[in-house]
Amino acid sequence: MANKDVPKDMYFLVKIIFFILGLGTLLPWNFFITAFEYFQFRLDTGNTTESSPDGNGTRVQKDEFNFNNWMTLLAQLPLLLFTLLNSFLYQWISDRTRIVGSLVGILTLFIFTAVLVKAEMSPQTFFSITMVTIWLINSFGAVLQGSLFGLLGLLPHNYSSLFLSGQGMAGTFAAVAMLLSLASGADKRTSALGYFITPCVGTFISILCYLALPHLEFARFYLNRSSAQSYELETRAELLLPDEKNGMPNGILDSKEESRPVKEPRKASVFTVMRKIWLLALCIVLTFTATLSMFPAITASVRSDTGEQRWNDFFSPVCCFLIFSVLDWLGRSTTTYILCPGKDSKLLLPLLVSLRFVFVPLFMLCKIPDRHYLPVVFKQDIWFIIFMTIFSFSNGYFVSLTMCLAPKNVLPHESKTTGVLMTFFLALGLSCGAGLSFLFKSLL
Fold it and tell me: Which residues of 362-399 are buried (b: 16+ CB within 10 A; e: fewer)?
């Protein structure tokens, strides 16, 4: 079909929908990691520990459950496993079933989490139930994310940037919701209830947005046209459906078209695609390994050097979660206008990605209570804020850059396989980082 026949994305509705779907995919992760005050409250066993030796006598609750570490690990392992599973599921289960089913599962688990706020139970029982919920909700999230990245491989590359920008906005959305709940002055259970109802609404809106996609001509053009090249179509009749939808009866086809043999859908070889994108896959693994090894398990433990109690309450929500979310979103959004280094970069991109591991010692030398081996070098708040700013922006930029460049290195019929593979390596990086967070915390 000629370019002049490509329909327009009227009112940018498809862009808006994929932005909202990107937001919806990371709502579970972001709403759990930013609710650390609530989880600390529910897991309080009455034990406290002296903060790092700064002379101010501050006492903080001891993290006996290693909640942030376990939450990170049990969120990323199912992401890895179910992303791998999704690479097989998409051959037998339709995109619609996987995406809608995952969103409904996430919505159900968020409702359960909100109900759990008012339930009385021991810290150990609450910890166990929460870990199971995190595992399940991120399993659904993995299938959802992998399925959507597969669809994005069929659309122009700027839609991938908007989707990733929406994922970055999920963190900002969650951080602002947490700040509002803290500022409300309500007790921790009441504020947490309102906090967890918010993603229920967001997930429901995501379901409605996805269901609206088939009714938009621009989305039908790209998704149906590209599907004709993929191996999900099983019969020749399905290849002729787009002509019917455009108002052309099957019987009124040009004789040349009738006599021309219909080509079999070209299958994309996983090994062929891997040879083309392996460097970008390595870059996204390194990016997320560096990020998840520090955030949030280490960075959320950093405390302010000031003695003002009100600022201490807001220090981690603002300087850790809000800064990370906003700068990560800005980094992801930047790739809408700039894609540098380009797809042919063999050295510069891996080098820049690897340099992010310098943040590991920088964060570990910030003011973190309950440390035994390493000294505190960067006591002032400004150092942590500077580190978080660069750390967050570079994460968002390199994640979005690699995900946008990967489809440019393959043939059109390999785009969907590329999306699934890149999502798997994204999950692999997250899992590696989550595992390393235990090691780095033990070295403090």
Answer: bbbbbbbbebeeeebebeebebbeebbbebbbbbbbbb
DSSP 370: S
Q: Are 244 and 250 in contact (CB under 8 A)?
A: yes
Q: Specify if 366 maps to a domain.
A: yes
Measure Cα distances from 138 to 148, 199, 325 in Å: 15, 14, 19
Is 140 domain-assigned?
Answer: yes
pLDDT confidence of residue 53: 43
Quote the CA–CA distance of 400 and 133 in Å, as a whole number: 28
User: What is the domain-level CATH number for residue 120?
Assistant: 1.20.1250.20
Residue 427 pLDDT: 84
Task: Give the C-alpha separation, 145 to 148, whole Å.
Answer: 5
Place of tokens 């706020």: 117
Give the H/E segment covering residue 49.
Answer: strand 48-50
Contact criterion met (CB below 8 Å) for 396 and 284? no
pTM higher than the cut 0.85: no
Domain carrying residue 364: 8-49+57-231+266-442
Q: Report if residue 243 sits inside a domain.
A: no
Return the sign of the alpha-carbon dihedral for residues 346, 430, 438, 52: positive
Enumerate residue ranges in the chain where pLDDT < 50. Answer: 1-2, 50-58, 227-262, 264
Structural domains of the chain, count: 1
- In this structure, the chain runs to a length of 444
Contact between 296 and 36 (Cβ < 8 Å): yes
- The reported pLDDT for the residue numbered 154 is 83
Q: Say what angle helices 348-355 and 270-294 make with each other, to 10 degrees.
A: 30
Query: Which helix H or strand E contains 424, and what residues bound it?
Result: helix 415-442
Residue written as token pair 């390994």? 289
pLDDT in tens, 245-257: 344 444 443 444 4
Burial of 246 (0-12, 13-18, 19+ CB in 10 A): exposed
pLDDT at 169: 87
Question: Cβ(179)–Cβ(194) under 8 Å?
Answer: no
Domain annotation covers residue 192: yes
Specify the 3-state DSSP secondary structure of 340.
Answer: coil
The per-residue pLDDT for range 98-155, each reduced to its tens digit, is: 999 999 999 999 999 999 998 999 999 999 999 999 999 998 988 898 889 878 878 8
Tokens describing residue 247: 């108002």
The predicted pLDDT at position 61 comes to 58
Residues 317/34, Cβ–Cβ less than 8 Å: yes
Residue 250 structure tokens: 């099957």
Return the number of other C-beta atoms located less than 10 Å from residue 52's C-beta.
22
Element (H, E) at 221: helix 217-227
